[in-house]
Give the backbone structure.
Amino acid sequence: MKELMKAQSCIILRNGMQIWIDTDKTDILQDKLQTITGSKFIKVENKTINSADITGIFPAADLDEFIRIKRGEWKCKKGQWHAKGEQCAGHHNIVEYTPPTVVNRASQKTVDMVRENLKGKFKI
Ligand SMILES: [Zn+2]
């Protein structure tokens, strides 16, 4: 699998800037952050950031949900997202089981979608 297929997490800074990292690297970062007292400059990927400016580290799926809710979308009982004001028709044609490979593609799609959605909003 290519590097691109890895699950991504986003470090959100106070100024709204976002830094995307592989989710499997967040543990190392979190351990590092726990040992820091006060504010220190830390290197994440190729960027140097002030630890005090980190608002949080979120998996792409959580961020996607947050953005959708902010846009007024809602999730129905079937777990499907609907546009603001749209009614749920029941999703009778939805396949219940999704093979893992499709899930991976879907999560990359989410990352791409979130990135696309945020493009131009913040300078990274
Ligand atoms: Zn629905």
